[in-house]
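We were asked to recover a plausible sequence for a given structure. The inputs and outputs are reproduced exactly as logged, with field labels preserved.

PROBLEM: sequence recovery
POSITIONS: 487
GIVEN STRUCTURE:
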């Protein structure tokens, strides 16, 4: 069984989707599963979503090792560390430190890795990372609010984060197939090389790499290589999806904290459709609870039965406005205020009857999932490229987390009509069984208390919020909101 440790929520759902699309019955946990949960019953792949991408390295390492321990207790022998296809990180980490810790724990001699994910427009050639054909440092990722990427050289980026030797597996070797890659890895490992960044331009390259790493204890990368590994994995028999659409017809809302170029395009489309749109302004109101309160007041004032479509609450802005906010509040504080406020808004919307939350942004989705107390999910069909539907437990809302970086251009995406909170009937539709996977699907996992939280169904993963990222007086985590009816 394959175990995946992912550094954020959207990355985790991205990789889970890649595994599911390759036919592996895949379960996704938000946070490290509790010790007495048997997440592997009936699963061929288990994904643990952490919120460690932007945390201090020691926290990211500890969380990743906690996830590894739990996965191993449940029979996982092969581990994939999922990081972002745009290598989102700082010079301190967290990709290098987490790789080092996992490689030591698994006694992995040399680790094959690549952020290449051609399905999402990411390719690696001669160790350079391209985003839709543009070098990473020239792509919109250079403006990321927290991890701006200003270098396209993957060896240079990784070497800044680890002392261990890093080399490339060049495209010619990858193209020569799995045996050639295996030989190159063995030869490099014998010379003491520890990380091999593999070029990959298309799905055939990723499959060659997946087959080459089929027996490796540790492999790493984005969703692309995970798909290659799944292709090489035994099992993979789950080839049909139930046709039911779990996301249809329930009250919906869109929450966006991503400032990616793609998200801004998507928001433009929603505005052009005439949807009610509310922008969070953390400079005008830096208290997360009050900021959330203002947004919920706006939501409550929407006319009942508005045909305009699902309302949108966002903080997404282009680079100019982003820098203005960050100058006023500091980048970390702005992010912390907005993440906490967005979690509170998600909880408030669910309390008002919203049952479908579309969340844009990895950190943002992490806050939403934590605030809603969603602890695990079976993976369903992609609602759109890089936009995942899942059936969560406990189930205050169905959700769909979108990775702005990898999601589809905004063409026809159209959440259903908005039905405002005050006039809603009681509980929304219930999820009677895991969606999509049909009769062979095992029962959903029990709720997963995060280490350090009170065990039991009311607890949920605690996202990382360092004291410096918390707004003054903020508890660091919004209160959990329970579904008004049974899950
Ligand atoms: N207007 C804003 N000003 C400052 N920071 C912002 C603003 N809007 C969003 N952010 C922060 O930027 C970060 C975006 O990260 P994330 O949600 O992971 O999106 P992405 O998937 O695009 O990386 C979050 O921490 C979010 O709170
Ligand atoms: O690999 C990717 O690009 C995605 O799976 C991913 O990690 C998305 O992160 P966000 O852009 O923060 O949503």
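RECOVERED SEQUENCE:
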């Amino acid at each position: 069984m394959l175990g995946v440790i992912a550094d954020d929520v959207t990355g985790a759902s991205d990789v889970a989707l890649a595994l599911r699309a390759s036919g592996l019955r895949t379960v996704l946990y938000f946070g490290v599963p509790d010790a007495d949960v048997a997440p592997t019953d009936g699963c061929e792949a288990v994904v643990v979503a952490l919120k460690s991408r932007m945390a201090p390295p020691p926290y990211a390492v500890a969380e990743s090792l906690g996830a590894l321990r739990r996965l191993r207790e449940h029979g996982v022998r092969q581990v994939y560390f999922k990081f972002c296809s745009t290598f989102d990180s700082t010079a301190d980490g967290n990709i290098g430190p987490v790789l080092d810790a996992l490689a030591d724990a698994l006694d992995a001699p040399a680790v094959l890795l690549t952020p290449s994910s051609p399905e999402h427009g990411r390719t690696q050639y001669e160790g350079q990372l391209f985003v839709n054909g543009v070098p990473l440092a020239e792509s919109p990722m250079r403006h990321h609010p927290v991890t701006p990427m200003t270098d396209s050289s993957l060896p240079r980026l990784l070497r800044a984060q680890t002392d261990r030797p890093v080399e490339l597996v060049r495209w010619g070797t990858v193209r020569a197939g799995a045996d050639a890659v295996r030989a190159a890895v063995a030869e490099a490992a014998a010379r003491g090389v520890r990380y091999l960044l593999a070029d990959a331009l298309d799905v055939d390259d990723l499959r060659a790499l997946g087959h080459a790493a089929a027996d490796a204890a540790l492999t790493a990368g984005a969703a692309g290589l995970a798909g290659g590994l799944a292709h090489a994995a035994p099992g993979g028999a789950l080839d049909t999806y139930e046709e039911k659409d779990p996301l249809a017809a329930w009250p919906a809302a869109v929450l966006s904290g991503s400032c990616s170029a793609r998200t801004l395009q998507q928001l433009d489309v929603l505005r052009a459709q005439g949807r009610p749109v509310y922008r969070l302004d953390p400079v005008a109101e830096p208290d997360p609870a009050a900021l959330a309160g203002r947004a919920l007041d706006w939501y409550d004032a929407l006319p009942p039965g508005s045909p305009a479509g699902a309302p949108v609450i966002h903080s997404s802005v282009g680079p100019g406005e982003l820098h203005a906010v960050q100058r006023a509040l500091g980048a970390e504080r702005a992010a912390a205020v907005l993440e906490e406020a967005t979690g509170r808004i998600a909880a408030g919307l669910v309390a008002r009857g919203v049952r479908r939350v579309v969340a844009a942004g990895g950190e943002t989705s992490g806050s939403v999932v934590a605030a809603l107390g969603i602890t695990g999910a079976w993976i369903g069909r992609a609602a759109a490229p890089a936009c995942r539907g899942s059936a969560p437990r406990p189930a205050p809302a169905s959700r769909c987390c979108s990775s702005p970086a990898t999601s589809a251009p905004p063409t026809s995406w159209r959440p259903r009509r908005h039905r405002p909170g005050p006039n809603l009937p009681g509980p929304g539709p219930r999820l009677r069984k895991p969606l999509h996977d049909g009769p062979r699907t095992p029962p959903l996992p029990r709720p997963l208390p995060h280490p350090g939280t009170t065990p039991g169904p009311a607890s949920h993963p605690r996202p990382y919020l360092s004291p410096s990222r918390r707004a003054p007086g903020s508890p660091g985590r919004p209160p959990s909101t329970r579904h008004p009816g049974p899950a």
